[in-house]
Amino acid sequence: MLLTRLTLLLSAVLAVRAFVVNEGTTCTVYPESLTHFGKPVDDTPSILHAFELCGKNGSVILTEGAFHIDQVMNTTGLQNCDVELHGEMIWSTNVPYWLSHSYSVTYANLSTAWFFGGENVTFKGFGKGRFNGNGQVWYDENRNNSNQPGRPIAFTVLNAKNLWMDGVTWSQAQFWHSFISHSQNVTMSNIYMSSLSNSTWFTVNTDGTDMWNSKDISYYNWTVTGGDDCIAIKGNSTNVHAKNITCIHTHGMPVGSVGQLPGFPDYVENVLYEDVTLINSTNGAWVKAWQGQNKAVTTNGGSGGGGGGWAKNITWRNFHLQNVGTPISVTECVYGHDPSVCDTSEYQLSNLTWENITGTAHFDIIASIHCGAKVPCPGLKFIDVNIETWNTSLGKPSLPPLYLCANIMDQNSTGIPCNGFAPYNMPNVLYADHPDLQTTKTLNIVVPEAQRDNCLFPTPGLDGCYAGDPN
Ligand SMILES: *[C@@H]1O[C@H](CO)[C@@H](O)[C@H](O)[C@H]1NC(C)=O
Ligand SMILES: *[C@@H]1O[C@H](CO)[C@@H](O)[C@H](O)[C@H]1NC(C)=O
Ligand SMILES: *[C@@H]1O[C@H](CO)[C@@H](O)[C@H](O)[C@H]1NC(C)=O
Ligand SMILES: *[C@@H]1O[C@H](CO)[C@@H](O)[C@H](O)[C@H]1NC(C)=O
Ligand SMILES: *[C@@H]1O[C@H](CO)[C@@H](O)[C@H](O)[C@H]1NC(C)=O
Ligand SMILES: *[C@@H]1O[C@H](CO)[C@@H](O)[C@H](O)[C@H]1NC(C)=O
Ligand SMILES: *[C@@H]1O[C@H](CO)[C@@H](O)[C@H](O)[C@H]1NC(C)=O
Ligand SMILES: *[C@@H]1O[C@H](CO)[C@@H](O)[C@H](O)[C@H]1NC(C)=O
Ligand SMILES: *[C@@H]1O[C@H](CO)[C@@H](O)[C@H](O)[C@H]1NC(C)=O
Ligand SMILES: *[C@@H]1O[C@H](CO)[C@@H](O)[C@H](O)[C@H]1NC(C)=O
Ligand SMILES: *[C@@H]1O[C@H](CO)[C@@H](O)[C@H](O)[C@H]1NC(C)=O
Ligand SMILES: *[C@@H]1O[C@H](CO)[C@@H](O)[C@H](O)[C@H]1NC(C)=O
């Protein structure tokens, strides 16, 4: 009886969608290529069908083998659904299709190839499930541009609650590997990501992950090789924990960018990054905020600055750095760099802690911390920060390590050995041969005369320390 029903159901389903096998609440998806003599066929309809049938109180199992993804997918609104990926999902190289069909994620006019979300959802890859974005076509087509409209984020968690993703590998992501937006209680563990270009064009914007408007988010056991931020915490993020993360060739662990859009303040609170290894990365433990005045920019969403907000209680702990461009930094003029507005930020930072940070800096700059003149930072702390220059580590001559500071409240009790003034327009990336930190160099930062003042050890209230346009 049961068998008959099953067989009927099976044949009915098989007739419509060749390769979803539906048994009770479980949908098993097989690659369409199996019925097409190995020829790649779009698996998107089968996968979407499986989520329709089994996305509520069910399981969706993608078997071993190669799944070809030729279309955007929106699998949100799942409930009590367990997803397994045993094989590889391969996104098509049809660049014009993706440029015109990717879903908008709202943030900075970016878009995605896949929205995934719901309540009480697991996504398990068992260390073998893989997303292959076929990124090389994107790196070549993008030609080093930043945030190309329509270039899709590989995987976006949207409107999720109680979601656990484990054991998934990304290779050659189209753009950011992943994004968590408007979600709560999401954990992503045992994640491997790697995107490298084999041409003269860089991978640009292949962030490991970003989060926005979300809370209670954890990242455990990640290894990311990419060409941009490793784990970036954007606006309206609360209670974030990243632990045991290795980042190679990235832009490190930033809070930001924040403060970009007027009318949409960015609040960030309770972030802990710990047990992090950063190798050959441009930046380390940092905050990137926008200036206070909105200005047109060619990248990052059309214009930026004046968004305001605050970030507080952020900790970077147990970091080991190997050859990092700017190990520790705070900028309040990210991406803008128009000197007439650079020191106008009203983005308030407080209670930032850098603890047990060791290893090597590529240049002689260990830290560059420029808090906005209008919003000096209270509660900054350095505890056991011990970084040497790359040259020193190689036994070569080196300039003395620089700790550049500006507008830090109670500076003498922060533990930061300030010995220079941090310019408001410090470049985010300090070397020209982006993204490889291959040559050994010393860099002598020239601080403009106008900014020198006696700001090294500002008194509370900052009298005599202000060094820019007072408006
Ligand atoms: C995605 O699906 C959800 C339903 O789960 C729907 O509300 C939403 O509008 C869809 N988004 C897009 C971009 O199609
Ligand atoms: C999700 O799980 C929680 C805890 O088990 C339960 O209270 C809640 O009803 C579940 N949500 C849905 C949509 O079933
Ligand atoms: C958070 O999600 C996990 C699944 O990843 C679940 O086990 C846990 O109960 C959730 N926590 C709360 C407070 O709902
Ligand atoms: C670069 O990667 C692409 C896509 O994987 C491949 O088709 C191409 O042959 C590779 N080129 C080189 C020079 O390895
Ligand atoms: C940290 O994560 C890596 C995978 O990225 C794993 O191999 C390693 O065992 C983890 N270490 C600890 C202490 O959990
Ligand atoms: C991290 O990796 C270690 C070593 O493989 C493992 O014991 C631990 O359970 C992992 N943590 C999580 C959250 O999966
Ligand atoms: C952050 O949340 C606040 C409400 O708490 C909202 O006013 C603001 O627009 C949000 N910012 C962004 C960038 O979404
Ligand atoms: C600061 O954030 C940590 C998590 O990183 C949290 O445990 C702690 O309670 C927060 N402190 C305050 C005062 O909110
Ligand atoms: C400092 O961080 C390193 C990792 O970089 C870790 O091995 C060490 O145990 C940490 N020290 C303390 C006192 O936690
Ligand atoms: C900063 O931390 C101190 C001491 O933990 C606390 O009293 C203060 O409220 C915090 N301030 C902010 C803005 O988080
Ligand atoms: C901070 O330390 C410097 C150098 O030791 C000293 O000149 C200055 O007076 C101190 N400032 C305060 C406010 O204690
Ligand atoms: C880091 O860069 C150095 C110098 O180019 C290189 O020898 C090393 O292999 C790189 N390490 C990793 C893990 O990529």
Automatic annotation (TrEMBL):
Entries under Pfam families matching the protein: Glyco_hydro_28
UniProt subcellular location: Secreted
GO cellular component, one term: extracellular region
GO biological process: carbohydrate metabolic process; cell wall organization
Keyword Transferase included in the entry's annotation: no
InterPro entries, per the entry: Glyco_hydro_28, Pectin_lyas_fold, Pectin_lyase_fold/virulence
Family to which this protein belongs: Belongs to the glycosyl hydrolase 28 family.
Name recorded for this polypeptide: Pectin lyase-like protein
Organism of derivation: Rhizodiscina lignyota
Species lineage: Eukaryota, Fungi, Dikarya, Ascomycota, Pezizomycotina
